[in-house]
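Batch queue: ligand-bound targets. Current item pairs a single chain with glutathione. No template structures supplied; prediction is de novo from sequence plus SMILES. Inputs echoed for audit trail.
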Amino acid sequence: METISSWTSFGGKLSVHQHDSELCQCPMQFAVYTPPQVTAGSTEKVPVIWYLSGLTCNWSNVMEKSGLQRIAAKLGVMIIAPDTSPRGDDVPNDDAYDLGQGAGFYLSATQEPWSTHFHMDRYLVEELSALVFKEFAGDADRQGIMGHSMGGHGALTLHLKHPETFRSVSALSPIASPAQVPWGEKAFTTYLGDDRSQWSDYDATELVGKQPSKAHILVDTGDADPFLEEQLRPALFIDACQKAGQSLNYRIQPGYDHSYWFIASVIEDHLEHHAAILKG
Ligand SMILES: N[C@@H](CCC(=O)N[C@@H](CS)C(=O)NCC(=O)O)C(=O)O
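Prediction returned. Tokens below.
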């Protein structure tokens, strides 16, 4: 692992790293915010919150625009911000912003040419986790996961599939059911193929119906989000949670859109939601 940048922030450290990923078959970058509670020589480990970003993003969006360092420092939690896909000249791409690089959808592609590199779910859970817990003072027994839009959906699915690993979960403006909206239908057809039976393992609304978790899920979405009706469709997830008995607090926030101005406005509630569970 190579450290590309490191800055002191709110008494802690924001650092950016690169490593060669076996699963994604390319160099991958990620950022870590280490809170000030981790001091040199200390053996104390802190809870970890994974933040999965949305379409077109990399580690930088949340670290530069959400203001989460101040809150993570106050709560004493570590934040890991991975990239949203494999990247590089050797990695397949598409001219559209919602496919290819920057649009990995936190799944393992089965279709050529994507299947060589696009394994973001396994990359996070197997490869990046192992690296992060070897190199940083995060506590592997106290992990939460959250994200925005495509990443909010990714957080929901990874929590539902690994509830013992990601004990707390929340989402900002998540896609509720990719299998039923244009962003997801395009990505799933491309990465997983035409057979829709192969999609259900990657759809949060279908997953929660089959395997609800014991966690309390927090979700915030703005009612002025331009993607609300066509791409996010909160009601699909809310209904599925109700039917499955999944504990959920889904807040529709008046006046907010899909941007980081919204995320910055509610992220404190989200980090506090995770910290209360992970530090409880
Ligand atoms: N308007 C964007 C759509 C993509 C988008 O809104 N991306 C969201 C995540 S789904 C985002 O966070 N963008 C980066 C940012 O606002 O910093 C485009 O056409 O490129």
